[in-house]
Amino acid sequence: MSKITLILILLTFLSGCFDDREVTTLTAPRGYLCITEYGTEKSYSCPRNTYFYRWNCNKEKQAQFIIDCAKAANPMSDEEGEDLVEQCEKTSHPLFCEKEYYEPAKKGKGK
Protein backbone atom coordinates (compact mmCIF):
# COMPACT_ATOMS: atom_id res chain seq x y z
CA MET A 1 0.00 0.00 0.00
CA SER A 2 1.30 3.40 -0.82
CA LYS A 3 2.00 6.02 1.85
CA ILE A 4 -0.66 8.34 0.42
CA THR A 5 -3.35 5.65 0.66
CA LEU A 6 -2.33 4.86 4.23
CA ILE A 7 -2.42 8.54 5.18
CA LEU A 8 -5.88 8.96 3.60
CA ILE A 9 -7.21 5.94 5.48
CA LEU A 10 -5.81 7.27 8.77
CA LEU A 11 -7.22 10.75 8.17
CA THR A 12 -10.62 9.31 7.33
CA PHE A 13 -10.56 7.17 10.46
CA LEU A 14 -9.39 9.96 12.77
CA SER A 15 -11.68 12.66 11.37
CA GLY A 16 -14.61 11.33 13.40
CA CYS A 17 -12.62 11.33 16.64
CA PHE A 18 -12.52 15.08 17.11
CA ASP A 19 -15.47 17.17 18.15
CA ASP A 20 -15.08 20.93 18.00
CA ARG A 21 -17.98 21.58 20.38
CA GLU A 22 -17.12 22.86 23.81
CA VAL A 23 -17.64 20.05 26.31
CA THR A 24 -17.35 22.05 29.51
CA THR A 25 -20.59 22.68 31.35
CA LEU A 26 -21.73 24.62 34.39
CA THR A 27 -23.71 23.71 37.47
CA ALA A 28 -26.49 26.11 38.37
CA PRO A 29 -26.27 27.98 41.70
CA ARG A 30 -28.30 26.37 44.49
CA GLY A 31 -32.03 26.69 43.83
CA TYR A 32 -31.62 27.84 40.23
CA LEU A 33 -32.26 26.07 36.92
CA CYS A 34 -31.04 26.49 33.37
CA ILE A 35 -32.47 25.64 29.98
CA THR A 36 -30.42 23.14 28.01
CA GLU A 37 -30.04 23.08 24.25
CA TYR A 38 -32.94 20.60 24.13
CA GLY A 39 -35.29 22.90 26.06
CA THR A 40 -35.31 20.95 29.32
CA GLU A 41 -34.88 22.56 32.72
CA LYS A 42 -32.22 21.21 35.06
CA SER A 43 -29.57 22.27 37.55
CA TYR A 44 -26.51 20.44 36.18
CA SER A 45 -24.72 20.11 32.85
CA CYS A 46 -25.81 23.60 31.84
CA PRO A 47 -24.29 25.03 28.65
CA ARG A 48 -21.84 27.87 29.21
CA ASN A 49 -23.95 30.39 27.25
CA THR A 50 -27.09 29.90 29.33
CA TYR A 51 -28.81 31.96 31.99
CA PHE A 52 -29.95 30.73 35.39
CA TYR A 53 -33.31 31.37 36.98
CA ARG A 54 -35.62 30.14 39.70
CA TRP A 55 -39.33 30.42 40.20
CA ASN A 56 -40.36 33.00 42.77
CA CYS A 57 -43.96 32.31 43.82
CA ASN A 58 -46.41 33.98 46.14
CA LYS A 59 -47.09 30.81 48.15
CA GLU A 60 -50.01 32.14 50.18
CA LYS A 61 -51.99 33.32 47.16
CA GLN A 62 -51.06 30.18 45.22
CA ALA A 63 -52.24 27.91 48.06
CA GLN A 64 -55.52 29.80 48.43
CA PHE A 65 -56.12 29.58 44.68
CA ILE A 66 -55.56 25.80 44.73
CA ILE A 67 -58.00 25.38 47.64
CA ASP A 68 -60.64 27.57 45.95
CA CYS A 69 -60.12 25.82 42.62
CA ALA A 70 -60.56 22.36 44.20
CA LYS A 71 -63.71 23.53 46.04
CA ALA A 72 -65.21 24.95 42.85
CA ALA A 73 -64.65 21.73 40.91
CA ASN A 74 -67.55 19.45 40.11
CA PRO A 75 -67.58 16.83 42.90
CA MET A 76 -69.80 14.54 40.82
CA SER A 77 -67.30 14.22 37.98
CA ASP A 78 -65.20 11.13 37.39
CA GLU A 79 -62.03 13.14 38.00
CA GLU A 80 -59.85 11.92 40.86
CA GLY A 81 -59.18 14.40 43.64
CA GLU A 82 -55.40 14.11 43.28
CA ASP A 83 -55.63 14.85 39.56
CA LEU A 84 -57.84 17.84 40.25
CA VAL A 85 -55.44 19.36 42.79
CA GLU A 86 -52.50 18.74 40.43
CA GLN A 87 -54.30 20.57 37.62
CA CYS A 88 -55.22 23.44 39.94
CA GLU A 89 -51.56 23.69 40.96
CA LYS A 90 -50.42 23.74 37.32
CA THR A 91 -52.96 26.48 36.61
CA SER A 92 -51.81 28.55 39.58
CA HIS A 93 -48.14 28.53 38.56
CA PRO A 94 -48.26 31.15 35.76
CA LEU A 95 -50.69 33.28 37.80
CA PHE A 96 -48.63 33.57 40.99
CA CYS A 97 -45.03 32.78 39.97
CA GLU A 98 -42.40 34.67 38.04
CA LYS A 99 -38.86 33.92 36.96
CA GLU A 100 -36.10 35.42 39.06
CA TYR A 101 -32.83 35.54 37.12
CA TYR A 102 -29.44 34.92 38.67
CA GLU A 103 -26.95 37.74 38.22
CA PRO A 104 -23.44 36.76 39.29
CA ALA A 105 -21.39 39.31 41.22
CA LYS A 106 -19.39 41.53 38.93
CA LYS A 107 -15.72 40.78 39.58
CA GLY A 108 -12.94 43.21 38.77
CA LYS A 109 -15.17 46.29 38.79
CA GLY A 110 -13.59 49.06 40.85
CA LYS A 111 -15.26 52.09 42.33
Description:
It is a single chain. The chain has 111 residues and is an alpha+beta fold. It has one domain. The chain has three helices and four strands, in the order αβββααβ. It has a four-stranded antiparallel β-sheet with strand order 2-1-3-4. A hairpin with a 5-residue loop joins strand 1 and strand 2 (41-42). The longest helix has 16 residues, at 81-96. The N and C termini lie far apart (69 Å).
How is the secondary structure organized here?
Blueprint: H1 3-15, E1 33-35, E2 41-42, E3 52-57, H2 59-72, H3 81-96, E4 97-101
Antiparallel strand pairs: 1-2, 1-3, 3-4
Helix pairs in contact: 2-3
Number of domains: 1
Main β-sheet, spatial strand arrangement:
2-1-3-4
Q: Indicate the overall shape.
A: elongated
- Please give the number of β-strands: 4
Strand content: 5-15%
Mean pLDDT: 74
**Global structural class:** alpha+beta
Radius of gyration: 25 Å
Structure keywords:
111 residues, alpha+beta, four-stranded antiparallel β-sheet, disordered C terminus
Give a short synopsis of this structure.
The protein contains three helices and four strands, in the order αβββααβ.
